[in-house]
Each structure stands twice: as structure tokens, then as C-alpha cells.
Amino acid sequence: MAGPADAITDARVPAGELGLPAARLLDVLATLPDRAARVRHLASVLTQHRRHPLDPLVQRAARALAQARPPSVAELADSLGVARQSLARRVRQAVGVGPKELARALRLQRAVQALRAAPRDHAALACELGYHDQAHFIHEMQALGGLTPGAYARALATGQDV
């Protein structure tokens, strides 16, 4: 895809329009054992097919936002030496969402990784991940991932492809 990522945020775009070898990609995805493997492979393919290198400022921002206790958008912009609006625009163009949404997604990713690694107390995990409380953690995981932490853990325990 030649344009900014935010041009296709929340849109259904045929793989062929992204410049990917769509038929081959679908064949490979069909052979992978589970959803996690398919997501990893798809992420790898999308990364390899970027038409432009990722903005170094966005890379630094993503690393900061992936921390256990990420800075606020204002603090991040200040530490990177750019205006908040400029940071938001550059992140949105590169990844399709703004810095706050990216931080939410990265925190959810850490939660999923922790739940996949071993059964965890959800209140302790919520605290570890920087959620205000367990209710906030449950709400965020349901909103972004479609399952509560308990439902996700039960699905993992029963071998469901989540």
C-alpha cells in the first residue's frame, strides 16, 4: 500500500490492493496450525512488504508506549521533542491509530502474552500491567479483544484457537 496506514484503518481491503501475493498468502495461512501462528505470519508478511521504512520517531514512540508504565502522550511528545499533534499524526499515518490507542493495543498484547504463558491472578496481572483496577482490565480486554480475561483463560485451558 502506498498511502498512510490510517487511510485503511477499520476498512476491509483485499490483500491484492495492499500489494501482497494474496493467493499464496491465503494458501500459507491455511496450513498454519492456529490463529496465533497465522497472526504472526501475517504480521511478518505485512512488515516485509512495507513500501517505506517505519518513521524512526514512531519506532521510538512505540518502544516507549510498550513499557509496563508508558508515558502520557504529552510526556512522550515532550521527550521526543515534537508537538503532541505532530506525534499523533505521525503515529496514525504509520500504524493506523493514534498513540493512546497504540498504547492500549500494546498493553492488551502484554496481557495476552502473560495469560498464554501461565494461569494468572487477574487482579495481580491488572496491577502489573498498569490498569487502575481489575474491572478496568476486564473492560479493556473485552472492548479490544472481544473476551474477558477469564473467558480468554478458559478458552486457552480447553485448547480453543484464540
UniProtKB/TrEMBL annotation:
Gene3D superfamilies in alphabetical order: Homeodomain-like (1.10.10.60)
Gene Ontology molecular function terms on file: DNA-binding transcription factor activity; sequence-specific DNA binding
Pfam families, alphabetized: HTH_18
Annotated InterPro entries: AraC_XylS_family_regulators, Homeodomain-like_sf, HTH_AraC
Alphabetic keyword roster: DNA-binding, Transcription, Transcription regulation
Domain HTH araC/xylS-type: 55-155
Positions in coiled-coil regions: none
PANTHER family on file: BLL1074 PROTEIN (PTHR46796:SF15), HTH-TYPE TRANSCRIPTIONAL ACTIVATOR RHAS-RELATED (PTHR46796)
Name the record gives this protein: Helix-turn-helix transcriptional regulator
Species this chain originates from: Nannocystis pusilla
